[in-house]
């Protein structure tokens, strides 16, 4: 119980953000209207994805340094969860784009970059599946994971800022921390981010423990 | 032996090997020429945006073909032999430099054929050449490491494309923008950002390659 308090907090925050995000008052803006509520669901997905991918790279580095099998299992599970969050982020973003930009996919640099970042991690999963030998798979997977990470950072955070993008926070558009986000929205937004990040870490931990059990049974 | 002499002798070895079995080099050169000619036959004439994009697509596939074989056609025994002789840093640096030279040759030939068959709409030729040089450098740095990873994973050519394409996309976006600026003859100060970005990505890729290759090499 002492170590699990944050899991209850994660569930509470996520429920609070769903209920509060749909019911609480939001500022009225032209074009955005009620779609502004998407902020509570779309942005936390990306925050959670970035945190989870950072954890994945951290464990890949740790694996290369120590060669401990469990570190590799953690790296792959964090990457798996990150891919799920990335897909959810893409879907929520496309839904929002349909109602504000008028198209599901409007060739926006941010959308393209996010899709390519997903391709990088899907390639990582394919690479792991293509190697049978366990230690070799762990080592090569860790190397590709670390090699791809800086490229993903450039894709998501540098390139969209250099071109014209409709996405808030890019191409001279106001981001969510300027006038868009008033104090009422912060009351939901910050707990939503914290809740989804903790939920992501929790899912990855559970998946790691499942995989560890499978592994232990296989090696008996 | 220090790093410098190791790198120099390894590059010399690559060049001699390539020269002795000319079929690989000639194959890639013929590949470029044939691709350009196929593009010419299918497009006949193109507008400037397509001209630029088509050139980089040709270069991309030529680079995949040329660089992919840098680790794949070396047997396990020979790799073990290098392992006893040289440091992993020397090996990856020499491969990157050798691939850069190869890509420069390829781009020169591709650009020449391309300009012969298609009308040339370039406004600022020196800047375009610079973008081609940066492109060769970027392709060789990114694909050398990818090819090393793919060669350790069952020598699979499909894997090379799957792993390489997402990594090369940000570089390619930057390259196409830079070369488009050069074609339109825009003021050179406009292109400063792109050059910085591309060189920045290159530095990151080379540094991560140097850090990671020793782990990949050790078996």
TrEMBL record, chain A:
<dbReference type="InterPro" id="IPR045062">
    <property type="entry name" value="Cyt_c_biogenesis_CcsA/CcmC"/>
</dbReference>
<feature type="transmembrane region" description="Helical">
    <location>
        <begin position="44"/>
        <end position="64"/>
    </location>
</feature>
<feature type="transmembrane region" description="Helical">
    <location>
        <begin position="5"/>
        <end position="24"/>
    </location>
</feature>
<feature type="transmembrane region" description="Helical">
    <location>
        <begin position="187"/>
        <end position="204"/>
    </location>
</feature>
<keyword id="KW-0472">Membrane</keyword>
<protein>
    <recommendedName>
        <fullName>Heme exporter protein C</fullName>
    </recommendedName>
</protein>
<dbReference type="InterPro" id="IPR003557">
    <property type="entry name" value="Cyt_c_biogenesis_CcmC"/>
</dbReference>
<feature type="transmembrane region" description="Helical">
    <location>
        <begin position="76"/>
        <end position="99"/>
    </location>
</feature>
<feature type="domain" description="Cytochrome c assembly protein">
    <location>
        <begin position="34"/>
        <end position="159"/>
    </location>
</feature>
<keyword id="KW-0812">Transmembrane</keyword>
<dbReference type="InterPro" id="IPR002541">
    <property type="entry name" value="Cyt_c_assembly"/>
</dbReference>
<dbReference type="GO" id="GO:0005886">
    <property type="term" value="C:plasma membrane"/>
</dbReference>
<keyword id="KW-0201">Cytochrome c-type biogenesis</keyword>
<dbReference type="GO" id="GO:0020037">
    <property type="term" value="F:heme binding"/>
</dbReference>
<comment type="function">
    <text>Required for the export of heme to the periplasm for the biogenesis of c-type cytochromes.</text>
</comment>
<feature type="transmembrane region" description="Helical">
    <location>
        <begin position="139"/>
        <end position="159"/>
    </location>
</feature>
<dbReference type="GO" id="GO:0015232">
    <property type="term" value="F:heme transmembrane transporter activity"/>
</dbReference>
<dbReference type="Pfam" id="PF01578">
    <property type="entry name" value="Cytochrom_C_asm"/>
</dbReference>
<feature type="transmembrane region" description="Helical">
    <location>
        <begin position="111"/>
        <end position="127"/>
    </location>
</feature>
<keyword id="KW-1133">Transmembrane helix</keyword>
<comment type="similarity">
    <text>Belongs to the CcmC/CycZ/HelC family.</text>
</comment>
<dbReference type="GO" id="GO:0017004">
    <property type="term" value="P:cytochrome complex assembly"/>
</dbReference>
TrEMBL record, chain B:
<feature type="transmembrane region" description="Helical">
    <location>
        <begin position="125"/>
        <end position="150"/>
    </location>
</feature>
<feature type="transmembrane region" description="Helical">
    <location>
        <begin position="80"/>
        <end position="113"/>
    </location>
</feature>
<dbReference type="GO" id="GO:0016020">
    <property type="term" value="C:membrane"/>
</dbReference>
<keyword id="KW-1133">Transmembrane helix</keyword>
<comment type="similarity">
    <text>Belongs to the CcmB/CycW/HelB family.</text>
</comment>
<keyword id="KW-0472">Membrane</keyword>
<dbReference type="Pfam" id="PF03379">
    <property type="entry name" value="CcmB"/>
</dbReference>
<feature type="transmembrane region" description="Helical">
    <location>
        <begin position="49"/>
        <end position="68"/>
    </location>
</feature>
<feature type="transmembrane region" description="Helical">
    <location>
        <begin position="23"/>
        <end position="43"/>
    </location>
</feature>
<feature type="transmembrane region" description="Helical">
    <location>
        <begin position="157"/>
        <end position="176"/>
    </location>
</feature>
<dbReference type="InterPro" id="IPR003544">
    <property type="entry name" value="Cyt_c_biogenesis_CcmB"/>
</dbReference>
<keyword id="KW-0812">Transmembrane</keyword>
<dbReference type="GO" id="GO:0017004">
    <property type="term" value="P:cytochrome complex assembly"/>
</dbReference>
<dbReference type="GO" id="GO:0015232">
    <property type="term" value="F:heme transmembrane transporter activity"/>
</dbReference>
<protein>
    <submittedName>
        <fullName>Heme exporter protein B</fullName>
    </submittedName>
</protein>
<feature type="transmembrane region" description="Helical">
    <location>
        <begin position="196"/>
        <end position="217"/>
    </location>
</feature>
């Amino acid at each position: 119980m002492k170590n699990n308090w944050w899991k209850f907090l994660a569930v509470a925050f996520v429920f609070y953000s769903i209920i509060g995000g749909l019911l609480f008052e939001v500022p009225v803006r032209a074009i955005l209207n009620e779609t502004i509520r998407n902020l509570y669901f779309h942005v936390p997905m990306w925050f959670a994805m970035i945190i989870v991918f950072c954890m994945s790279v951290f464990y890949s580095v740790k694996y290369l340094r120590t060669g401990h099998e469990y570190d590799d299992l953690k790296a792959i599970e964090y990457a798996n969860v990150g891919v799920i969050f990335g897909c959810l982020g893409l879907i929520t973003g496309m839904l929002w784009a349909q109602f504000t930009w008028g198209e599901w996919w409007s060739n926006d640099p941010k959308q393209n970059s996010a899709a390519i970042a997903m391709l990088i991690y899907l390639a990582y999963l394919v690479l792991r599946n293509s190697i049978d030998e366990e230690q070799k798979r762990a080592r090569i997977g860790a190397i590709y994971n670390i090699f791809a990470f800086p490229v993903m950072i450039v894709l998501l955070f540098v390139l969209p800022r250099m071109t014209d993008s409709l996405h808030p926070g890019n191409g001279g558009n106001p981001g969510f921390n300027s006038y868009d986000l008033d104090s009422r929205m912060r009351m939901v937004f910050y707990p939503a981010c914290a809740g989804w990040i903790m939920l992501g870490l929790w899912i990855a931990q559970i998946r790691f423990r499942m995989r560890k059990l499978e592994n232990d049974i296989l090696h008996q | 032996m220090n790093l410098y002499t190791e790198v120099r002798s390894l590059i010399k070895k690559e060049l001699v090997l390539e020269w002795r079995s000319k079929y690989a080099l000639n194959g890639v050169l013929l590949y470029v020429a044939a691709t350009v000619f196929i593009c010419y036959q299918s497009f006949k004439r193109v507008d400037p945006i397509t001209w630029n994009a088509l050139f980089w697509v040709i270069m991309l596939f030529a680079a995949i073909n040329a660089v992919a074989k840098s680790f794949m056609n070396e047997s396990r025994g020979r790799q073990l032999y290098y392992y006893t002789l040289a440091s992993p840093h020397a090996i990856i640096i020499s491969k990157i430099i050798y691939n850069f030279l190869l890509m420069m040759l390829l781009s020169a030939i591709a650009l020449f054929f391309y300009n012969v068959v298609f009308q040339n709409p370039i406004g600022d030729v020196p800047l375009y050449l610079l973008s081609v040089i940066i492109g060769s450098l970027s392709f060789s740095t990114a694909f050398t490491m990818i090819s090393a990873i793919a060669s350790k994973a069952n020598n699979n050519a499909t894997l090379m494309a799957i792993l390489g394409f997402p990594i090369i996309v940000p570089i390619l976006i930057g390259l196409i923008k830079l070369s488009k600026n050069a074609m339109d003859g825009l003021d050179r100060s406009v292109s400063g950002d792109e050059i910085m970005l591309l060189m920045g990505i290159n530095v990151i890729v080379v540094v991560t390659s140097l850090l990671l290759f020793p782990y990949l090499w050790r078996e």
